[in-house]
Amino acid sequence: PQELTTVRVQDPRVQNEGSWNSYVDYKIFLHTNSKAFTAKISCVRRRYREFVWLRRQLQKNAGLVPVPELPGKSTFFVGSTDEFIEKRRQGLQQFLEKVVQNVVLLSDSRLHLFLQSQLSVPDIEACVQGQGTQTVTEAILHYAMSNCGWVQEEEGRP
Fold this sequence. Notes:
Layout: E1 5-15, E2 23-32, E3 41-47, H1 48-62, H2 81-100, H3 103-106, H4 109-116, H5 121-128, H6 136-155
Antiparallel strand pairs: 1-2, 2-3
Helix pairs in contact: 4-5, 4-6
């Protein structure tokens, strides 16, 4: 069978609303039959600056392979906040869709931890460098096990 990977960026949520350190995070839902991925279904929440970090890491490790662009970080935006958040969500989704189609980028374990674990950026780095308490695969499987019920509920299955 053909390998398929569906990645969706959805459900933007404003965290710490009304405070000076408010930010938006997005749900990243991944469904795949690709051998490249440890877990076949995963769901994590990430914020824009984590995407920026991921893109930087992919660029460092991809050599001459071009890494897709992220939507811009707008400090001045004309229009509603909802409109901006939606445009950014679409841009982040396009970014991830292009990344998961690229064999070179797909071989980066940081990408897998970003998509399939809720580890923080420093913890992803530690894990990739072998300084964490778990291997990359263990971290992903641990997260997948802890989230099974939630993912099935997302799918609308009993």
